[in-house]
Every structure is written in structure tokens, then in C-alpha cells.
Amino acid sequence: MIEQVVSVDMPVYEKIIIHKNRLAPKDYTGKEKRLSLVTGTHGDELDGQYVCYEVIRRINEHPEKLKGIVDVYPALNPLGIDTGYRGIPMFDLDMNRVFPGDNNGAMAEYVAAGVINDIIGSDLCLDIHSSNTFIKEAPQVRLNEECAEKLLPYAKMLNADFIWIYSSITVLEATLAYSLNNMSVPTLVIEMGVGMRITNSYCKQLIEGIFNLLIEMGIWEDNKPFVKEPIISTEGEVSFFHASESGIFVAAIENLGIVKKGEHIGDLLEPISGTILQMIESPFDGIIFTLRENPVVYKGALLARIIHDAR
């Protein structure tokens, strides 16, 4: 059932409306476990749109297998989705920097508060993101170290390539995930793909993980799919590569994934002089999970991230 979560009046008789699709079993009692699936916080992140579609399609195809509640919120930033703009158009505001919001606040704060209030009560929330238009990310789950003990068992079920446990020092407290975790709603952040694109293989990988999680939670009744065993890493086990100068970055690998020590990752070029400004090689055996997608770079821009495989 498609429901209105929150609505805000706009100029010229228009409205911003946030919807969700509640999927519930036919013999609904109100005591079922509930998973919230949230995406579309940034208007240039589109992988979540396909994930939402496919999760809803599969559940509707076999409604008899649904034993709990799945709430799907496909567009927390509908204006951004409509225009392909990362933030909220006209306001130049990042939707993921206004949570938990304020019922008496400005438009974005009011919407954020309405979303939070609606998600509260979920047994688990998945906050799905893509990367921006500059870099591509492999499917990954990101956890704040303060919540890792509670969230790690769920993260392992999601068929991600790896789980990145990051320091609480780097946490942005105005994000949806931080706010919900702080309100006792376990929330996982999933990152994958590249902005303004849908990476089908990554979406399908995550969808299998979502149904595996639903089965484990008792929300979906089916045979468990095969899921990957993820690498689990902290920030200290990740190498970052930034551009030493401005130039053109040309990748030497076709796909994200396993790399060997010394493997050539890519070059930063100076077109006018025909020289290589910077050559990137893997410092160890691991997985390259971030790679520059837009070739034009400025000094200091992120080119790649590689995680050490200690398994």
C-alpha cells in the first residue's frame, strides 16, 4: 500500500510529498518484524531506485512468502531525483545533513522529522546510497565503530564485498543513519556504484543480500541465497590515493575487485607535455573498492581506495 509520509506546501500550489510503499502479509497482526528500506536522499544516486523496484516486484510476485513488514521509501529527496540534483534544488542543501529534523523547522527540517518519525519502530533500516558522479564504489556496508557490535551481524548478511568500520571521529551527526541509530533503530549505510548511473550487477548483488537478511529476520520465507563472505576492515587497513597534481586520470583496470601487490591501477597524465605525473600501484594484496570515474582531476582529488585483504 502506497502511503503519504509527509507533505509540505510549495509556491504556486505545488507540494513536496514523501511516499512509502508498505508491504505487509495478508494476515497482518501488527506484531510482525519490520524492515525499512530507504534511498533517494541524494538526487544523483539512482541505484536505490532500481533496488526498490526489484524488491517490491519480487515480494508482489510471491506475497504468500511475506511474513513481516517491508516499508520502502524510494525518494526522500523527490525534487533532487526529478532534477538530477544531489541536494535539494533551490535550497542548495544536502538532505543528509538535516536529520533528525524539527517539526517546527524549515521545509527540509520538517520533512526530515516526518521521515524519522515514520521509520521509528522499525527492527532494522537500510540506508542505500550510490557514490557521486566522480568516483565509483564497490558494494559495501559502512558502520560507525560505536554501533559495530550490534550492526555487524546484519551487515554480514547483505552480500557486500566488504564492511568498512570507521572511526566515530569522522561521523556526521546530522545524517539519517546516525540519528536513527541514536534513537535505537539499527541502521546500516550501503554504498555502491556511481552517481547518475545504475550499475545492474551491484544492484542485483545487494538485492540478493536484502532477501537473505529478510529470511534471517523471519520477514521472508524462502530458501537462503548464496551470499559473499565480506572482508571486514577498519580505516587503518585502507589506503587512500589522491592526485599529486591537476591532470587527467586514466585507469589501468576495467573493474573494481581483487588486486595484487604492485598491480598497476592507473596514471595521472599531463596532456600538453605527454608526461605521467603520477603512477598508482597497489601497495598490497587487497580489493580496490573506489576508483575515479570522472577523468578530470584537481590536486588532492581522490583517485582510488584499496582495502587490505587479511583473510
From TrEMBL:
Question: What CDD domains would the database entry show?
Answer: M14_ASTE_ASPA-like
Q: Provide the transmembrane region boundaries.
A: none
Q: Which InterPro entries match?
A: AstE_AspA_cat (IPR055438), N-alpha-Ac-DABA_deacetylase (IPR053138)
Which cofactor is recorded for it? Zn(2+)
The UniProt keyword set, sorted, is: Hydrolase, Metal-binding, Zinc
Q: Which Pfam families match?
A: AstE_AspA_cat
Q: Where is the Succinylglutamate desuccinylase/Aspartoacylase catalytic domain?
A: 33-215
One GO term in the molecular function aspect is: metal ion binding
Superkingdom, according to UniProt? Bacteria
Q: What is this protein called?
A: Succinylglutamate desuccinylase/Aspartoacylase catalytic domain-containing protein
Source organism per entry reads [Clostridium] fimetarium
Its lineage opens with:
Bacteria, Bacillati, Bacillota, Clostridia, Lachnospirales
